[in-house]
Amino acid sequence: MTFIQDLLKPGGGIALIPFIRGTIATLLVLVILMGIADIARIHMVVLASLSIGLLMSISWFEKAWNDVQSSRGESSSSSAAVNTAGKEPEKTD
Predict the structure, then answer these.
(1) Which residue has the higher pLDDT, 73 or 27?
(2) Does residue 73 lie in a domain region?
(3) Mind listing the UniProt keywords for this protein, alphabetically (predicted)?
(4) What is the pLDDT of residue 89?
(5) Domain annotation covers residue 49
(6) What is the DSSP letter of 13?
(7) SS3 sequence, 19-59?
(8) Which range marks the domain in which residue 61 is found?
(9) How large is the average pLDDT for residues 20-35?
(10) How confident is the model at residue 72 (pLDDT cuts 50, 70, 90)?
(11) Which pLDDT score is estimated for 26?
(12) Which residue has the higher pLDDT, 66 or 77?
């Protein structure tokens, strides 16, 4: 039950990225195989290009998400260096 609770809390859908990527990759493989088998070839070309676009957009989203998460980590560590009076701590040599 905790996995479902993790998915339902805000930002929890990030855990589904590997599943989504695998599903789209499977779709791409099937579309390519159907194109090779000469089943509605033009449709398979369009579906393959859409699948490739989806894979690229998932990768872009994941990179942007990781950048945001790393910048949040850096900002929280830099804000910890500032004391409660709002002044930076003095450096001792």
Answers:
(1) 27
(2) no
(3) Membrane, Transmembrane, Transmembrane helix
(4) 53
(5) yes
(6) G
(7) HHHHHHHHHHHHHHHHHHCCCCHHHHHHHHHHHHHHHHHHH
(8) 41-68
(9) 94
(10) confident
(11) 96
(12) 66
Label residue 32 exposed, middle or buried (CB < 10 Å: 0-12, 13-18, 19+): middle
Cα(37)–Cα(64) distance, integer angstroms: 38
Output the six-digit token pair for 33.
């195989």
62 CB-contact burial (10 Å; exposed 0-12 / middle 13-18 / buried 19+): middle
Number of domains in the chain: 1
Q: Which two tokens stand for residue 78?
A: 């830099």
- Whose tokens are 């088998």? That residue is 37
Task: Write the single-letter amino acid at 66.
Answer: N
CB 21 within 8 A of CB 58: yes
Mean pLDDT of 55-81: 79
> What is the Cα–Cα distance from 92 to 32, expressed in whole angstroms?
64
Q: Cα separation of 70 and 61, whole Å?
A: 14
